[in-house]
């Protein structure tokens, strides 16, 4: 009986250690804030519709030089994807891709050390969507689909 309890106790400790270790790989912060910025140019309105498995954030219009953000607690497997579109001279321009993946948060989000958030900036430009990285640089992650 005592041996059995020891085994269970050991398994529990192992589980706790492994889960703490995997959390620290994912992100150094407890919360994330995702920003979608419109850097398309004057008079171009961007529309976004983001979802996770559990949440539908609805449609939001973002004017040029404005941004939209939402925040959420870190949890295992969190993924947000967005349908994002605008009109380039009346032609639909769109994409439907992941904007936040908790497994990539430590690469694609910035910990500014000021608050409890990882800041994940996604910038819409005429040629595609750019993501912020941990080191402050931006790279293009997705091209638009042009109708
Ligand atoms: C944006 O729209 C305003 C009002 O419709 C217009 O006066 C302005 O010239 C437009 N700017 C550009 C860059 O198209
Ligand atoms: C984030 O969005 C909230 C509304 O949900 C707004 O009040 C706040 O100003 C936004 N923050 C930034 C930095 O854009
Ligand atoms: C910043 O990090 C990203 C992702 O890890 C990498 O692709 C990029 O080359 C880095 N940029 C600089 C200037 O180090």
Automatic annotation (TrEMBL):
Q: Which residues form a coiled coil?
A: none
Q: What is this protein called?
A: S-protein homolog
User: Which family would the database say this protein is a member of?
Assistant: Belongs to the plant self-incompatibility (S1) protein family.
Taxonomic source organism: Aquilegia coerulea (Rocky mountain columbine)
- What's a BP term from Gene Ontology annotated to this protein? rejection of self pollen
The organism's place on the tree of life at top rank: Eukaryota
Q: List the subcellular locations.
A: Secreted
Keyword list (alphabetical) reads: Secreted, Self-incompatibility, Signal
Offer one Pfam family short name for this entry.
Self-incomp_S1
Naming one, the record's GO cellular component terms include: extracellular region
Q: Where is the signal peptide?
A: 1-28
Query: Is Signal among the key words of this record?
Result: yes
Where does this chain mainly localize? secreted
């Amino acid at each position: 009986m005592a041996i059995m309890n020891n085994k269970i106790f050991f398994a529990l400790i192992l589980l706790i250690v492994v889960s703490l270790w995997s959390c620290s790989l994912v992100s150094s912060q407890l919360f994330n804030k995702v920003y979608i910025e419109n850097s398309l140019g004057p008079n171009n309105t961007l529309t976004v519709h983001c979802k996770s498995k559990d949440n539908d954030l609805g449609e939001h219009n973002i004017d040029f030089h404005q941004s939209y953000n939402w925040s959420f607690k870190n949890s295992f497997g969190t993924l947000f994807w967005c349908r994002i579109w605008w009109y380039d001279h009346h032609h639909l321009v769109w994409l439907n891709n992941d904007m936040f993946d908790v497994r990539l948060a430590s690469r694609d989000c910035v910990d500014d050390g000021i608050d409890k958030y990882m800041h994940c900036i996604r910038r819409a430009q005429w040629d595609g969507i750019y993501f912020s990285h941990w080191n402050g640089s931006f790279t293009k992650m997705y091209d638009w689909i042009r109708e």
